Amino acid sequence: VFGLIEETDAGTDLPGTTRIGVYSPYAGYRFPAYLAIQIEPDDFNEALDGLLGRNGTPFILLSPTRELCSAKAEKRLTDKRSGFVSLSESVAIDDRRQLRLLRPLDEILAQFRGINLPSEEVTGSKVFGLIEETDAGTDLPGTTRIGVYSPYAGYRFPVYLTIQIEPDDFSEVLDGLLGRNEAPFLLLAPTRGLCTAKAEKRLTDKRSGMVSLSENVGIEAKRQFQLFHPMDDILAQFRGVNLPPPKEDGATAFFPTPPDASWGDVSIRFKDGHTVSVKAKTAGGVFNYTQMGMANKKNGNPTVQWELLKTFADERGILDWSSNKAHRHNQKRRELLAANLRDFFRIEGDPFRLTDDGKGWQARFIISPDE
Helix H segments across 131-289? Predict the structure, then answer.
């Protein structure tokens, strides 16, 4: 009736108490659920003592009536982020002699869920514009991986959400995340007060960042979450450490390729022999051969790869043996050109494919000459 995950060995050594299953609303969140059948509050308190001593993580305790759970006992449960459910208030027997819930389970466990679970909007990562993942669980208490922050193609940073009450619990989770992640990551938490100066320095030393939900997220009139500031502003320090500047003088420029772009979204149009206009979905710019990484290191002139790119433009994206610019060396040059384009756009896969007759190469992107 409670929709729990059943367990084969559910016994305990506490009188009148059994572990009836696991409450797992989301991947990565598993809370043991116990049923204590007692008559006197003192017996209930004895069972509660045992459960609190055996469980380092939150749990749910079901009992026949609320009278068994005194205000002091309920506070002890709350202090451990655990919950109590009165069967007399939550369960009834229907006409078919079957147990049924008087209210949806999410409502019965509203307080417990509020303490131990992120909101569905945050879990779904929609408010932060993250790339969602199917398996988001972790083995760290109150912590889930809610998605990936990918501002540009080739840049992916895992994002975690941890719901904790005490700074010590937050620091323990941070220990686990720092041990599991060699690359930078983002950690979201309810308030900045959980993240001590020492913890924040440990994050900074690993080029990682912390986001306080109370400072950056609110609820609008339609009861939807909204950001107080643009995501790029919230993550300004993190971006400054982990992303290259838009352009680097005298070197290959950084092109902000959208993370979901493919070669079919790219267009290159020559403006003159040394400069091209480039677009990839919403990103665009004008670059010369040096900024695209195709300058000869010895003399600064365009490389043969750049000349081949210009040839593809003159041939409207298709180069085969019918072209007067066909050459047996073009095979190797094309491979080098493909590598240059992958480095510049950070899009996976080959930017060229064989023509249908197998006698030439066709660009997977749009390319055109100066006209």
Answer: 167-180, 197-205, 213-216, 231-234, 236-242
Helix (H, G, I), strand (E, B) or coil at 276: strand
Query: pLDDT digits over 102-124, tens only?
Result: 888 888 888 888 888 765 544 44
Size of the chain in residues: 371
Mean of the pLDDT values across residues 26-55? 89
The C-alpha atoms of residue 105 and residue 150 are separated, in whole angstroms, by 36
What is the helix, strand, coil percentage profile of the chain, to 5? 30, 25, 45
Partnered with residue 217 across adjacent β-strands are 227
CA-closest candidate to residue 283, choices 231, 227, 347: 347
- Whole-Å CA distances, 371 to 265, 315, 363: 21, 13, 19
| pTM check: above 0.85 | no
For residues 286-296, give the mean pLDDT: 93
Quickly count helices (H) and strands (E) in the chain: 13, 19
Torsion of CA 264, 265, 268, 269, to 10 degrees: 110
Q: Would you say residue 339 has pLDDT above 90? A: yes
Within 10 A of 209 (CB to CB), how many other CB atoms are there?
A: 24
Question: Which amino acid is residue 102, in one-letter code?
Answer: L
Question: Any residues with CB less than 8 A from the CB of 83 and at least 6 apart, and which?
Answer: 58, 59, 60, 61, 77, 109, 111, 112
Pairing mode of beta strands 360-363, 352-354: antiparallel
In 10 A of CB 55, how many CB atoms? 15
Close Cβ partners of 319 (under 8 Å, ≥ 6 residues apart): 311, 312, 325, 326, 330, 360, 361, 362
DSSP 9-54: --B-SSTTEEEEEEE-SSTT--EEEEEE--SSHHHHHHHHHHHHHH
Q: Which of 47-51, 127-131, 136-140, 330-334 has the highest mean pLDDT?
A: 47-51
d(CA 282, CA 285): 10
Mean pLDDT of 351-360: 91
Under 8 Å CB-to-CB from 97, ≥6 apart: which residues? none
Pairing outcome for strands 225-227 and 217-219: antiparallel
Residue 158's alpha-carbon distances to 54, 150, 173, 179, 314, in angstroms, are 33, 9, 15, 14, 42
Q: Which run of H or E residues covers position 110? A: helix 110-116
